[in-house]
Amino acid sequence: MKNKQPSTLLTKNKVGVVSEKDTLQQTNYLEAVKSFARLTYESVYVIDYETMSFEYVSENPLFLCGYSSEEVLKMGYDFYFKHVPEEELNLLEQINEAGFDFFEKLPADTKKEYSITYDFHLTNQNGKNTLINHKLTPLFLTDDSKIWKAVSIVSLAHHQHPGNVFIKRQGSKEQWELDLKNNIWRKSLKPTLSEREIEVLRLHAQGLTINQIAEKIFVSPDTVKYYRRRIFERLSVNNIVEALAAAVNSKII
């Protein structure tokens, strides 16, 4: 029997012994962040809470308001003061205080499992407002478990208004929503979809129409419309575009 030749998947870039000098590259974590930023359509940046500045800002224009990433990097927090509407700066201050109070009470060994997400407007240099979703999670903690550095992902929001503040824990079905009026966190369960509802969403994501989805899963178009209504209700959205965004943000699809 002829021996099967090794696949280039296993041999093309097989690395031998890694030197001590090479292992030092692991300390340069920003290279990993930059690699991720090249692969995602979302904006990525790193906040340093020791210096209250940005340590890295990706080149994605969504978060830049017409500036270069280098210009936003130099601006740091001044970027927010210049490009977030004044009334929403107060909202960000409330979210900031409530969020850090929440994290402060968490066990130190679990803090990196949590992330916070919320929506606010950015105003570009031409005066146009864009509602963005801002997700943030700890990257490094200090010895006394304070958040030293955090990585943030920015994408278009799927809601219609600012706020929508949630804290979520990786691997947990629970989430906490900030009641902005009373400034308290309310615990609930993350939204879930049935297998058929997820299937319908995935087919929509592939660009199929209602009739095409119906044919694909052997149901009537009215049944597909029923699944869509259920999806909208479960995800608290108004249309399929918002549903897809919400499902992606919640890691449902």
Task: Provide a concise account of the structure shown.
The protein is built from 10 helices and 8 strands. It folds into 2 domains: 27-189, 2-Layer Sandwich (Beta-Lactamase); 195-249, Arc Repressor Mutant, subunit A, CATH 1.10.10.
Word description of this protein:
The protein has 253 residues and is an alpha+beta fold. Strand 3 (114-123) and strand 4 form a beta hairpin. The chain folds into two domains: 27-189, PAS domain (Beta-Lactamase); 195-249, Orthogonal Bundle (Arc Repressor Mutant, subunit A), CATH 1.10.10.10. Helices cover 37% and strands 25% of the residues. It has helices spanning 8-11, 20-23, 30-39, 69-75, 78-83, 86-104, 195-205, 210-217, 221-235, 240-249, and strands at residues 43-48, 53-57, 114-123, 129-141, 147-156, 163-169, 174-179, 184-189.
List the helices and strands and how they pair.
Layout lengths: L7 H4 L8 H4 L6 H10 L3 E6 L4 E5 L11 H7 L2 H6 L2 H19 L9 E10 L5 E13 L5 E10 L6 E7 L4 E6 L4 E6 L5 H11 L4 H8 L3 H15 L4 H10 L4
Antiparallel strand pairs: 1-2, 1-5, 3-4, 3-6, 4-5, 6-7, 7-8
Helix pairs in contact: 7-9, 7-10, 8-9, 9-10
Alpha carbon gap, first and last residue: 44 Å
Gyration radius over CA: 22 Å
Strand content: 15-25%
Q: Give the fraction of residues assigned to helices.
A: 25-40%
Q: What is the chain-wise order of helices and strands?
A: HHHEEHHHEEEEEEHHHH
What average pLDDT do the residues reach? 89
- Quantity of strands, as a count: 8
The domain count comes to: 2
CATH architecture of the largest domain: 2-Layer Sandwich
Strand order in the largest sheet: 2-1-5-4-3-6-7-8
Class from helix and strand fractions: alpha+beta
Q: Fill in the CATH topology of the largest domain.
A: Beta-Lactamase
Low-confidence stretches: none
CATH homologous superfamily title of the largest domain: PAS domain
